[in-house]
Amino acid sequence: xxxxxxxxxxxxALAALCTTARADTSQVSAxxxxxxxxxxxxxxxxxxxxxIVQLPRWWSGEHTWSGSAANLSLDAQAGGxxxxxxxxxxxxxxxxxxLVQPGRVIRLNASLGPLQDLAANGVLTLATGVSDGQxxxxxxxxxxxxxxxxxxxxxxxxDKVIGAQYKRLKALIETGKAD
Length: 179
What we know:
By secondary structure, this protein is of the alpha+beta class. About 30% of the residues lie in helices and about 35% in strands. It has one domain (about 35-175): START domain (Alpha-D-Glucose-1,6-Bisphosphate, Chain A, domain 4, 2-Layer Sandwich). The protein contains 5 helices and 8 strands, in the order αββααββββαββα. The protein is globular and about 45 Å long.
């Protein structure tokens, strides 16, 4: 098995430089952590949902294997692939859709970036709904695995990267542009 050390190092270095909306990680332990973001958005739940399922429009190309979000695809149905294809036959499955409730929630089994090589289990949930008359956007990433994976050290970096993606999604929902 080979590792992508440059990608792992780049992920950690970039995460250290990110200045994004950040939620504190919770339940950080040797066996996992939770990164969660929840804020109101200035849009209808339908508009928020339409943006959520357009993942290549808001996921940063800096956090792809190929360097381009244009190479991402999301088949938003149970069993569907969040995949990336580039070059001559190169590809990666970032996640697999396990739940879709159109207009409300999509959940993926997704061991992102260096977590894939650690045999960690990641579950990414993106949801929208109405609370107190406001459209809410929620992104939660739950990660679990072996105690030797070093989650205590990885959790803050992963939280920053997920937070950056959350910020891009929120911007896409509210302005039509992720940047």
